[in-house]
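Explain this protein:
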Amino acid sequence: MLHTEPVDEPAVPRRTAGHVVVLALWAAVSVVLVFTTVRPWMPEIGLFAGGADLDVYRDGARHVMEDLPLYTEPVIHGLLYTYTPFSTLAFIPFGLLPGGYDKYIWMATNLLLLVGIVALCRKMLGERMSARVVATSALTAVACTFLEPVRTTLFYGQINLVLMALVLWDASRGDRSRLRGVGVGLAAGIKLTPAYFVLYYLALRRWRAAIVAAVTFVATVAGSWLVLPSDSRQYWTETFFESTRIAPDTHPSNQSLRGVVAHITERPAPVVLWLVLALAVVAVSMWIAVRLHTQGERLLAVTVAGLSAAVVSPFSWSHHWVWFVPLLVYIAHRAATRPRWWLAALVVYLGAGAWPYRWDEEVVVVGLFLFPPDWAVTDVLVNIYPLLYVGVLVGAGVLAFRGDTPVGRHPATPSPGRPATIPT
């Protein structure tokens, strides 16, 4: 029986009263901004006047339940259904929500889920769940409501927080967990972008998790094909390849790499150029993410992957960028011992905030990328999220290659000369 010296795990830094005060002030500012910058019931843009995407989910489910075409004709509000056939099966329970109150119930559910996401992020940072952690997680969640991706998710009744929660739950599980990969597979089955995390698992050499995720995704495709053969055939043979079905590449809300190229050239991005640039981003970001993960920075690693997925996606609406939430959780964690990190939080908050602009008395737009084209800085603002991403990638790269592991973290593999405890 072999005995070895156990590796000491540094204590996670305890949040001081000053740190909690900052979170409380940040939350209060966000609430004020959410309810004063745009009137909550203002038609078409007020926080409580939305729910269009929730309507689409419900109407898509209604189409399949009533044996109506899902992809060859518009659904409610004249919008086209762009999600997978499996998603409609997942959205069937939405039809049980009471009409007139459904969007408020779903908004409240998303807010509770946001608190859970923050708490899960902090668990990945090594913190143990307690009443104090839940309370401060609630403060952080409220502070994030003025982020444009979060506000837009709440406004439209989107599912991006659900998908991110599935991925984070998956990534937080131990390497030996047989369920690891299921969350990513289910998320990808609903909306294809989370399939990016299969590549993330492969880069980490988590072969079983990658296989489980891929098999789960294939199971969602096969299962929905059995239930919805006609719609599945239409989606996977035609609709899947119609990238312009969502919106033109040049749309200001396209906060992806392909959108950046289109914004600069003022024409659809050449597919070959986009693929070359996307592959370069994938290679660099995965290299950084793997390095972070091996240093014990699991949350920052998966956050870099989540942001990268939004960048390389052909089209990324602002609400796809909910990965700014775990980024801010990580930054706030750093700020517990190094207050200068609050400056990084401020930069992200200012760049990704739901800042409105009134075009006239009746029309208000929200988001820096939608500011007037005659402004001198519009050419910069229209690519604001990819620009923030570049800053995050550079910062994460510095942390990854400087080996600056903060208090409370420890490498995922034993350090040389410090043997880990070996089970006997």
Remarks:
- The longest strand covers residues 356-358.
- The chain has 18 helices and two strands.
